[in-house]
Amino acid sequence: MRRLWFYLIFMALCAGGCTLAPPYTRPAAPVPAQWPTGAAYEGAVSDASALPASEMAWRTFITDGRLQKVIDMTLDNNRDLRIASLNVERARAYYGIQRAELLPSVGAAGTWYKERIPADLSSSGKAVTVEQYSVDLGVASWEIDFFGRIRSLKDAALEEYLSTDQARHSARLLLITATAQAYLVLAADREALGLVSSTLEAQEAAYDLIKKRYDAGVASELDLRRAQSQRDAARGDIARYTQAVAQDENALDLLAGAPVPPELLPEALDGVAPPKALSPGLSSEALLRRPDILAAEHRLKAANANIGAARAAFFPRIALTTTVGTASADLSGLFKSGSGTWSFMPSISLPIFDARTWSAYRVTKIEKELSIAQYEKSIQTAFREVADALAARGAIDRRIEAQQSLVDALAEAYRLASLRYEKGIDSYLGVLDAQRSLYGARQGLVGLRLAKISNLVSLYSVLGGAAD
Q1: Domain membership flag for residue 80
Q2: Are residues 303 and 366 located together in one domain of the fold?
Q3: CATH of the domain at 75
Q4: Would the pLDDT of 329 be above 80?
Q5: Contact, 171 vs 81, CB < 8 A?
Q6: Are 284 and 294 contained in the same domain?
Q7: What CATH number does the domain containing 329 carry?
Q8: Where are the beta strands (DSSP E) in 356-396?
Q9: b/e string for 235-268 if b means 16 or more Cβ within 10 A?
């Protein structure tokens, strides 16, 4: 019996490290080694003191306390993230099943056999009753993995599990940044609603003043109708932004998986603490740490391991069935000396001709080429996303500076136009044009300030921020 266990251990050791999978080599990144440069990217990568996104936890990046609480709600309640987490657990279980194939399945069985043999069939010419008891411990059809077929399948299952886990990281990162974006959009729309409300108040005051002057015969009906049109336009904008704010709140509730408490909602964009500054680094190699790219690489490694399993299918399969136990005609003698039994039944199957094996091998090679193309496409897409975010980052400050100067100039023009109208020098048309231009410029400034903060959030996402 000791010799039998020695054979089992020896076979397991022989099969321990063999695999026919080709050596894995990471494909070269099909993008430039450095980020784009030029006038559009001026200042976009110059902040060397800031941390890279991949080294910055989201709680460090998101500095607004109320927004942090909303993101916590999202991570706890969002159903998409829950589905991604369950997919990881399922992939882990599949990996456990495949890994267990490397080990023998040991089982125990107890049997009781009793049979009556009639006299005409008995060798003694008399009817006899045969009774047998047995207890066995054995291995049922354990494949000895000499050529690494099972080990390659185990490696493929491991890479699929790791890919699914990286997909969960990616989903978590996208959920964090999507929540921050939705929160910022809500803040900007609420600020715009406040701007429209103050504009409406000014328009109503102007209309009331011109109405009094019209009734007194000082102002023309044309001025009255112009003031009325401006007031009505502001009323329409009030309704539009009220709708937008309600829809923004609905979108945020969906992301959070539950209604967000009113005390956590922003009143205006000025009331939201901006995210922490981050650096994209100087090399585009940072893209290789993005969760979606890591997931694509794990899928490529899984395809590489499947080639090993397909190659091993061309070689013999060796299986072993063995049992050790005890047997006796009497239950009382089941464990007495001399009642031991054992069996040792190795088997080998050699494929001679099976066209499906060759086709399966070709499939695995094509799947690896597909995985390489998908991996390279993921890197190219990521590079484009980062380049776009850097281009926006390089220009946004200059755009805000120019827009602020425009707002200041138009505010002064509106003040002067109002004074000239009140003194009767110009018609109300000059006031109307100045007010309309100032209103549009202020809305544009709110949009640019939103774009600046949103760009920073997008950059954190596309650079693969540390979402855990």
Answers
A1: yes
A2: yes
A3: 1.20.1600.10
A4: no
A5: yes
A6: yes
A7: 2.20.200.10
A8: none
A9: eebeeebeebbeebbebbeebbbeebeeebbbeb
